[in-house]
Amino acid sequence: MMSGAGVPGAAAGPSGFAKRLLVTGGAGFIASHVVVSLVENYPNYLIINLDKLDYCASLKNLETISEKQNYKFIQGDICEPHFIKLLFETEKIDIVLHFAAQTHEFDEASPKRPTNPYASSKAAAECFVQSYWERYQFPVVITRSSNVYGPHQYPEKVIPKFISLLHQNRKCCVHGSGLQRRNFLYATDVVEAFLTVLKKGKPGEIYNIGTNFEMSIVQLAKELIHLIKKTNSESEMEHWVDYVKDRPTNDLRYPMNSEKMHNLGWKPKVPWKEGIKKTIEWYRDNFRNWKNAEKALEPFPVRELFAQLDVL
Questions:
Q1: 242-246 CB contacts, 8 Å cutoff, 24+ apart
Q2: Who wins on pLDDT, 309 or 253?
């Protein structure tokens, strides 16, 4: 979600920067790619990265730009209102890129039908943000994307999880039959989509950032087994798959219509074979970027907070 109207050329503001952008969750997966791109491509913008550094964040994702003059990192929690108010007052923020998780939809106007509390919270957040546009004309843009993959992603998600398990000579844990299908979009493609929306998006609009590339989870597992274990044998590939109990309400597909983004001039560019090769290579060297990465490889990882609760 974004707030602030566009990023056209402007006269220099405080400290000589034309614009001051706040990126929330900038040490996480997608947002870190966005931060790096903004810092490198917009030297006249100050990019402020606000992150609480939760379990899935890593400042290693930002090492290439950490010393840049137009980059600033601030550790903090967006749920602390007094801190956020002070931040906006002192940093004179022009635009906010808020990287909350996104819901899965058919097209921008489709009714929301969340099937679990996590998805429900995201749908509620969208409604809350949209109400500020409808009632106060507060300039916001909402984006939703397909499943994004690539370097920097905490390995609790399916692609980095399977890659990391195979690198450790462990089996891919497939939920249920594995016939659930997912669309996968490479990280740099989604960054280009966000920058396109930042430049050309209209306040109050919703944009789906999707791809037509789709495969089943079991097909994904076998593709990764083929690439990492160098085998084409069906029996050998089955050896590296462990079918576990399915998740409740595990949707079969997340279809998405991205025609509005295409009309802005954006389409995904990175082919699957290129993107997945880069991703496999990155996790070979960077799996330990998170201190609790090993816990993420369990079939059903449980956050530490909830694991400590007593169940009555």
A1: 242/171, 242/172, 242/173, 242/174, 242/299, 243/174, 243/176, 243/177, 243/178, 244/173, 244/174, 244/175, 244/299, 244/300, 245/175, 245/176, 246/175, 246/176, 246/177
A2: 253
